[in-house]
Write a structure and sequence with these properties.
Radius of gyration: 19 Å
CATH class of the largest domain: Alpha Beta
CATH architecture of the largest domain: 3-Layer(aba) Sandwich
Shape: globular
Largest sheet: 8 strands, mixed
Strand content: 5-15%
Structural class: alpha/beta
Number of strands: 8
Number of domains: 2
Helix content: 40-55%
Bound molecules: 1,4-dihydronicotinamide adenine dinucleotide, 1,3-dihydroxyacetonephosphate
CATH topology of the largest domain: Rossmann fold
Strand order of the largest sheet: 3-2-1-4-5-6-7-8
Length: about 325
């Protein structure tokens, strides 16, 4: 048991799931902007829109007053999609107490600035310890009580251990890591590769194709990570390979779903119009391209995904192109 009070922002699939997990260890106040969601969590102990069929702990309290969630919190957790992350953080700033750690659950980059979420936290809330919880963590599976593992990454090796126990429970095993950038990058980049894998699945490609994309995707993730000074081991861990496998193979993944529909020949605008949940890879792809250029790293799969997302080519054309490109050494970028 922990004495820390937690303010968790974001009443979507993952915010609600993490709130339910942490409630076992500490009191959690979940802020959601939608008043109906707040009422449903408090009265019915469910969030049917995002987690159909799941029963939430009765102890979990939701509010639509962000001050109520943040002002008394010893830890603030951000479950807000990346493109809205900064605006919510600006609100957090009005209520948060000094030195309270802020942990991101989000797996995207801010489009205009190409910043990671922990960078945004440090910019908006200087002086607050920052971290990220990330790994192969499909929300609905965890709510259904299936075992999973995750990583909490913070630069401070002491604070990270304190927070490890806050997020851990019997079926949710949380490891620590001090490579914040590597862990965060893993979560961002696997979404792009999951879109590529989805395209292949939508086009009827085989298991060998999927395995090749995952492996070559991991190689380009590791190259960008190396250029950005990350620890190479991070990418073979839960935040890298682990999350890559979960997202690239699960029917639950929203990013893979976007890829499947692109593979069937639909446009991103059409696919997005009928999705109410976020697919971070589709939003972050241009920022990933900008990072690759900034660090001089070749990312052929991410580039193809970006070109399909932006309507410059089709999934069918890039998959045909893949077969035409001659392969070099396995250590080469192509
Ligand atoms: N769903 C999953 O299995 C996992 C998701 N993540 C990451 O967690 C982050 C959040 O994703 P999900 O909860 O899955 O998304 P979601 O699409 O299920 O829910 C997003 C929630 O954010 C809220 N929201 C959006 N903009 C807002 C704003 N300006 N102010 C207040 N609330 C706002 C929405 O109302 C919604 O409740 C994403 O970055 C995602 O990549 C990470 C691990 C697992
Ligand atoms: O990050 C996730 C699993 O770890 C969720 O993936 P999707 O956003 O593609 O559903």
């Amino acid at each position: 048991m922990n004495n820390l009070k937690v303010g968790l922002l974001g009443g979507g699939s993952w915010g609600t799931t993490v709130a339910a997990l942490v409630t076992r260890n500490a009191p959690v106040t979940l802020w959601a902007r939608n008043a109906d969601t707040v009422r449903e969590i408090n009265q019915q102990h469910s969030n049917e829109t995002y987690l159909p069929g799941a029963r939430l702990p009765e102890k979990l309290r939701a509010t639509s007053d962000i001050g109520e969630a943040v002002a008394g919190a010893d830890v603030v957790v951000m479950g807000i999609p990346s493109q809205n992350f900064r605006s919510v953080l600006e609100e957090v700033r009005k209520h948060i107490r000094p030195w309270v750690p802020v942990i991101s659950l989000s797996k995207g980059l801010e489009l205009d600035t190409r910043m990671r979420m922990t960078e945004i936290i440090s910019q908006v809330l200087p002086g607050h310890p920052v971290g990220v919880l990330t790994g192969p963590n499909l929300a609905r599976e965890i709510m259904a009580g299936q075992a999973a593992a995750s990583v909490i990454a913070m630069e401070d090796a002491i604070i990270v251990r304190e927070l490890q126990s806050l997020f851990s429970s019997g079926l949710f095993r949380v490891y620590t890591n001090t490579d914040v950038v590597g862990c965060e990058l893993g979560g961002v980049l696997k979404n792009i590769i999951a879109i590529a894998v989805g395209m292949g699945d939508g086009l009827g490609a085989g298991d060998n194709t999927r395995a090749s994309l995952i492996t070559r995707g991991l190689a380009e993730m590791s190259r960008l990570g190396a250029a950005m000074g990350c620890q190479p081991e991070t990418f073979s861990g839960l935040a890298g390979m682990g999350d890559m496998i979960a997202t690239c193979t699960s029917p639950q993944s929203r990013n893979r779903h976007v890829g499947i529909e692109l593979g069937r020949g639909r446009s991103l605008a059409d696919i997005s119009a009928e999705m109410f949940m976020v697919a971070e890879g589709a939003k972050s792809a241009p920022a990933v391209m900008a990072l690759a250029e900034q660090y001089g790293v070749e990312m052929p799969i991410a580039t193809d995904v970006y070109n399909v997302l932006s309507g410059q080519t089709s999934a069918q054309r890039i998959f045909r192109g893949l077969l035409r490109v001659s392969a070099g050494a396995e250590s080469d970028p192509g």
